[in-house]
Amino acid sequence: LAKDQGGGISHMFTHEMGERANRILTMRHRMRLALERNEFVAHFQPQLDLRTGRIVGSEALARWESTDDGQIPPGEFIPIAEEYGLIDDICIQVLEDACRWTARWNRLGLGDISVAVNISGRQFHDAQQLVEIVDTALTTLKLPPTLLELELTESSAMNDPENASRVMRLFAERGVGCSIDDFGTGYSSLSVLKRFSLRKLKIDRSFVRDVTQEANDAAICSAIIAMAHALNLKVCAEGVETLEQLDYLRSQSCDQVQGYLIARPLPPQEMEDLLTRGIPASLRLGPVRGAPR
Ligand code: C2E
Ligand code: MG
Ligand code: MG
Ligand code: MG
Hints:
- The protein is 50% helix and 19% strand.
- Helix 4 (87-107) packs parallel to helix 6 (127-141).
- The model has no long low-confidence stretch (mean pLDDT 92).
- The protein is globular.
- By secondary structure, the protein is of the alpha/beta class.
- It has helices at 2-5, 8-36, 74-83, 87-107, 121-125, 127-141, 154-159, 161-174, 190-193, 205-208, 215-230, 243-251, 268-277, and strands at residues 40-49, 55-66, 70-72, 114-118, 148-153, 177-183, 200-203, 234-238, 256-258.
- It contains 13 helices and 9 strands.
- Strand 6, helix 9 (190-193) and strand 7 form a beta-alpha-beta unit.
- An 8-stranded mixed β-barrel has the order 1-2-4-5-6-7-8-9, surrounded by 5 helices.
- It binds ligand C2E and magnesium ion (MG) (3 copies).
């Protein structure tokens, strides 16, 4: 092609395009292969209930355990998978893995441990497939629907609120919960929010980070907690890394926390060990300190 057109510039151009096309093909090919090999799995980050001091659930986070390249972090493969249209297949693999482990913990009598799975805006948009997969997973694994929760980011929920609301209702009818992830980072319309069939709001970790130093962040966290409770929703704070953050959130009656203080996202067997042994003594909750409830 470059030869026909004769110019050096067009030659370079097509060469570069060829390189790029090649790179994309390789990565696409690798991801397809990884899907066939079931290399996309769930790791589990525990969620601590601040009233009972117990682990009550987990968030499933996608991990690529590549036989060729070891662990590839989600920040690297999720954007690429989105670009190639493979994200849905990957998330389905993660959802099924997450449900499998959660059903096992339920069978083992380790408590009513729920699992929250991240759902992309696109999956929520074309919800038919998602609904079918969830139904199949629940029946074949005998997982109680109330133990499953689907996380949708605030921005994808508000991107198409009519549809989000319809799909949330579909899941609510089944007993499956929905929650809004990264709450506070998007542009929520409160009139829309109140019409959603939700179980939970998750406070984005950017507000939790400086909650004990920045009065504004503290005010935002308290306001989100109060609003969630007024709407009859549970609230979970993400990215809790210190006991001071936990104490503040607890003083404001936040329901649950998730973060490195409790545990990093754990491989399933380590999550199971944690559920079996219970949380370490250093995390046992004492009387509430700080502001009164
Ligand atoms: P997210 O849903 O907001 O997940 C929380 C992220 O915060 C996770 O990153 C988790 O490891 C990290 N994190 C948890 N506790 C702490 C903490 O105390 N401090 C700090 N600094 N970070 C903490 P991860 O696993 O890298 O996932 C990143 C994002 O990728 C997730 O954000 C989620 O949006 C997306 N993601 C992960 N798995 C899936 C999936 O299966 N499907 C979809 N659609 N998205 C996924
Ligand atoms: Mg999430
Ligand atoms: Mg989140
Ligand atoms: Mg987040």
